[in-house]
Amino acid sequence: MNSRKTNILGIVPYEAMKPALESLAENRDDLSLDVYVGDLSKGVEIVKSLHMEDYDIIISRGGTSRLIEQNTTIPVVEINISVYDILHTIRLADNYRGKYAIVGFPSITTSARLLCDLLQYDIPIHTIHSSREAENLLAELKKEGFRLVLCDVVTSSIARSLEINAILITSGMESLQEALNRAVKTHGTFRHMEERQLFLDSLLQHSSMQTAVFTPAGELCYSSSGLQLNTELLSLLSQEIPAAAAGTDYKCFKLCGGILYAVESRKFQTGEKQYVAFYLADSHSSLLKTRHGVSYLNLKDAEKSMFNSFYGVVSLSEGLCGCISSYAQNRYPIMILGESGTRKKYAAEVLYSQSTMKTHPFIVIDCVRLSGKEWNFLISHYNSPLNDRGNTLFFDHLDSLPEEKLQKLLSTIIEQELHKTNKILFSCTTTEKSGIAPLILEFIHDLSCLILNMPPLRDNMEDIPSFSSLYLNSLNIELSKQIAGFRPDAMELLQQYPWPHNYTQFKRVLKELAVLATTPYIQAHEVNRLLEAERCFNVPEQNTDSGSGSLPEGSLEDIIREAIHRTVRETGGNQSAAAKKLQISRTTLWKYLKE
């Protein structure tokens, strides 16, 4: 790093703040900035894993900055949340139907109270000082009927785990610029350590092995750059400290992120202090976590997919959540039914995450992507997930399998009693006018499946304003924008549109509107233009008396999708043959099958 500059470490609570800070730093020649994403204890872990001698000062936000102050001697500057930042978030929540409150650390609630007093807003404001306090408070608010909170990152994560909607209070560019200015003015004096640290780092960086050094008590003293952000691997290493400290040399293997690491360790002593050093070599043998059509996930993977998805942002209705919660507590097979785009896979992830078997793997079998080879592996191979027990098996797009394979799968499940040794979930796409296929009904009857019906978006039109606000908040963070919402006439257009492709289409339209938005409020003409383009995909209904009867009713997209599914079934699941017959590429075919 350049010694003439103030070397700043940024620990920010959400991903979108990182590029915003970096863009401000690019225009300045008086500082150098490294930014990492982490809140509260994770932020502290990041600080402990880095070489603090490389930095003069740390900037962070809210409760994370106070925790970091307790764990480092380097000065910490807090990124303030301005009154304008809070006002923007309140405006974003105006369209929400229901009770909401502001919850946060003092850096948020102090300014919020001042703003609400000045503007005479009657919004409940609650101050917290820890994540445990936040969890207790949010539980009480939920009992009182609150379904939305305006809050910081920590509170947002806890709220979502309690099935409470959350809108994140973000820091604007002015607040970030002001934090950088204060950091430059107050930076500390650790530069006398820099040359020595750079020399040691240079030696280690040229080593073919990565290094991590711990105290016998488990405190991380040093980690090479390749390990600094791999907290999962560092955690695995810390579990080996007692065994490594007990002997002179210790060897083991660790699997992390699909990579197998060969680990050697040595204990050594400098003065009266003892240390344990681990030296890691990547074996370069990537252990595949996913075969074509068969994916192996754990609870952490499933929860990450749920919380980071659009469907997790808009959440499920209370009635559906209650049904899922009840279904998740037993071992009966579950058939998830619904139109295309009605969150069936998300429902399966929620069922798994709430079940008593969530400590065992969640195995997703995408019937659309199963090739002949993978089908044979699934049905016949000794290492097939069907030969294991105690897992959750999710057969996604069950209706895409041809008749012969459906019969074989049902026979296999019954003969091996898989529905008794595993938790089995199915998903099947239905339409408003078509019934359930006879073979799918056989699955339901022969396995005594519980039925989970996922309602289409048109059944929840009154919730579109709430869904829009919640997803716009997520898009604001992702796109580094500050869209405040929709004009009333624009919102009316969204509520009048029938949304034939449900939540998937709704998500895509809102994302495009957010990308194109140039004003704080999205205008009606922008919504109308985009919805008119969506209507171009629709075609008139076919005359069932004309004798044609070969095309289904619905949109052009539905007709194309049905033709593709039918052709795949006719070719016995051979996607290459189906693509050739339809005269389209396999990529195009796979895209329609996946939807």
- Structural class of the secondary structure composition? alpha/beta
Rg computed from alpha carbons, rounded to a whole number of angstroms: 28 Å
Major beta sheet, specifics?
Answer: 7 strands, mixed
Mean pLDDT: 83
- Overall 3D shape: globular
In the sheet with the most strands, the strands line up as 14-15-17-18-19-16-20
Bin the strand percentage.
15-25%
Helix percent reads 40-55%
Q: Give the helix tally.
A: 27
Word description of this protein:
There is one protein chain. The strands form 5 sheets. A 7-stranded mixed β-sheet has the order 14-15-17-18-19-16-20. 35% of the residues are buried. Helix 6 (131-143) packs across helix 7. The radius of gyration is 28 Å and the shape is globular. With 595 residues, it is of the alpha/beta class. A hairpin with a 2-residue loop joins strand 11 (249-256) and strand 12 (259-270).
Essential attributes:
single chain, 595 residues, alpha/beta, seven-stranded mixed β-sheet, five-stranded antiparallel β-sheet
Offer a quick outline of the entry.
The chain is α/β, with parallel strands linked by helices.
Task: Annotate the secondary structure layout.
Elements: E1 6-12, H1 17-26, E2 31-37, H2 41-49, E3 57-60, H3 62-69, E4 76-78, H4 83-92, E5 100-104, H5 106-119, E6 125-127, H6 131-143, E7 148-151, H7 153-161, E8 165-168, H8 173-186, H9 194-205, E9 210-214, E10 220-223, H10 225-228, H11 231-238, H12 241-246, E11 249-256, E12 259-270, E13 273-286, E14 290-291, E15 294-297, H13 299-308, H14 310-314, H15 318-328, E16 334-338, H16 344-354, E17 362-366, H17 372-380, E18 392-396, H18 403-416, H19 418-421, E19 423-429, H20 438-446, E20 450-454, H21 464-479, E21 485-486, H22 488-496, H23 502-516, E22 521-522, H24 524-535, H25 556-570, H26 575-582, H27 586-594
Parallel strand pairs: 1-2, 1-3, 3-4, 5-6, 5-7, 7-8, 16-19, 16-20, 17-18, 18-19, 21-22
Antiparallel strand pairs: 9-10, 9-13, 11-12, 12-13, 14-15, 15-17
